[in-house]
Amino acid sequence: MSQASDNELMRGVQRGQLYLMGEIYERYHGTVFGFLVKLSGNRSLSEDLMQETFIRALKYASGYRADAQFTTWLLSIARNVSNDYWKKRANQARHAPEGLETIEDMQADPAYLGEIDEEARMLQVALMQLPYEQRELILLAKVRQLSGNQLCSMFECSRSAIKVRLHRAMDNLRQFYRQSEMPKVTLAARKNYEL
Question: Does the model's pTM come out above 0.85?
Fold first, then answer.
């Protein structure tokens, strides 16, 4: 990989040096994939959406402005790709990962369980129970650590609206997380009672 900045690579792409998009892909495919898999809960779907994200980034490279933060621009494209996907499938629930019928199915998936520890698994389960828009906002604000101004630009609303939405989303996440802890406490209490 070269030491060129993201802006330098994008200027090259804008000048027709399309091979530079490969370097951008190498730098950011993990970031985009991670965002999309946490958003959708489905690895296969996220791979498809990630590919579409980079295709659109290439298609709309001429619209990239060097004064914008590159990751914000790229994650905006990923967000739009995901939204477009779900708009086309309006009759499918956005909160239900494709191929996983219930939260219990997600918890029982060995591939899913093998990748993360128990607390992270419970957090991911709670995250997947949130409405799509709240999950998206939390991922962008807390996981990808976009600034308030970047979020305002992406969501096309005021800073105070972002704060309110994020506060509500975090409250809901806490509530779902606490609910996911309850069965474990009950099970532990039963085991102690039986002894």
Answer: no
